[in-house]
Write the structure tokens for this entry.
Amino acid sequence: MAPAGTERGAGASRRKFYDRAFAIFGLLATFVGLITLSALILDLALDGADRLSAQFLSSFPSRFPEQAGILSAWVGTTLVMLVTASTAVPMGVAAGVYLEEYAPKNWLTALIEINIANLAGVPSIVYGLMALGLFVYQLRLGQSVLTAGLTLALLILPIVIVATRESVRAVPGSIHEAAYALGATKWQMVKDHVLPYSTGGILTGVIIALSRAIGETAPLITIGALTFIAFLPGSPVKAEFPFISFDWLMSPFTVMPIQMFNWVSRPQEEFHLNAAAAGLVLMLMTLVMNGLAIYLRYRFRKRIRW
């Protein structure tokens, strides 16, 4: 029988081995992600960097590849994502907070939670079919920016709800108890403690959700997004009272992924280079959007003192 000191030494060595093995595995996994992203950006840059210019960004699509641009595509993507974020984020956060803090713990709530989790895995084309019947035919919103934004909002809503619930659940119970002990109501506890402390996690979920939405093509093609647009939606600012217009919400649209798909499907090699340049711009838009969310998350996390 081995002495007790020898067994403790062998156990400590085994735990250190597992610790180092997991650290190496995590490092390799991180490198795989970085190498994949770097290879993707490098491949797009080699093909499309020469096409990037002010003329490419400020021109409408054309049947001549050297004259074609992405003005209507990147403006459409920006407007659609604006509608998507302004719809899905407030609704998703409110639903997540309600389910975690207010909803009774019974079979109905459990059924709703299971279905929300399942909705996060539904193929995007199904959302497109639902939006075609609901927004286009029933509500008669047409093939508009509003329809596209609402469709993508439905697509990412389950992700925002699940991320919000997990972030709210991570707030220590002692924070809740301390707030109640000081006489705070439930709304005051949620507003002053739960939401500020969980904002970092919620923004992480929002980043993932919006990153998925900006690259979606199938649901937008299903609702009738155009592949060739030589005009822009109306300006939201008017010279006459009330100085604000929402006509742009009902305008036809196209987005960057659809423009890229249109160019890639053509036989001319020059259009393929245009698609690679558009991919670089789309990647840059995603990084800027995520960078803003990461900056906000960093600012909120600096305020946490527990």
Notes: The chain has a mean pLDDT of 86. The chain has eleven helices and no strands. Residues 101 and 187 are 10 Å apart (CA to CA). The longest helix spans residues 4-48.
